[in-house]
Specification:
The protein is α+β, with helices and mostly antiparallel strands and about 130 residues long. It is built from three helices and three strands. It has helices at about 5-20, 75-110, 120-134; strands spanning about 30-35, 55-65, 65-70. It has a three-stranded antiparallel beta sheet, with helices on one face. The protein is elongated and about 75 Å long. It binds zinc ion. Zinc ion (ZN) binds near residues 37, 38 and 40.
């Protein structure tokens, strides 16, 4: 595998860093939302599913080895959903950043990509041929 030129590698790293900097809030866990019936027999929700209350947002995550659920104000549900999505994006970006960093640093050493660990054994089989040529 050939490495992309240093300029392109640097631009790629800056793109990853810019995307990370754009993430405002990050939250672990999940956000669920659902409409509910209040249970009052005279309420419209008793007969009409379209009149159910909500949606009610719940943010669920693990804190210190236990599950924590928090009811959210309806108007903030979207922010928490976005924050959970941002955290997923961040984890993806960190993986890409790590790979791009390894590629850039290994290119400086002249070593081939870490994706091809078998190259070390290939070198062993090639080196005797080189010695014969000398
Ligand atoms: Zn009701």
């Amino acid at each position: 595998m050939t490495h992309p030129p240093a300029r392109r590698r640097a631009a790629r790293l800056r793109t990853i860093q810019r995307r990370i900097a754009q993430l405002q809030y990050i939250c672990s866990g999940t956000v669920s939302h659902q409409a509910r019936q209040c249970g009052k027999p005279t309420c419209a929700c008793a007969a009409d599913p379209a009149a159910w209350h909500g949606p009610y947002y719940v943010w669920s995550r693990r804190e210190e080895h236990r599950q924590v659920n928090t009811m959210l104000p309806q108007e903030l549900g979207r922010f928490f959903e976005q924050a959970v999505e941002n955290y997923r994006k961040l984890r993806d970006l960190l993986r890409v950043w790590e790979r791009a960093s390894a590629e850039a640093l290994l290119a400086m050493t002249g070593t081939n990509s870490i994706r091809r660990p078998h190259l070390a054994s290939e070198r062993k089989t090639r080196s005797p041929r080189k010695r014969r040529r000398r």
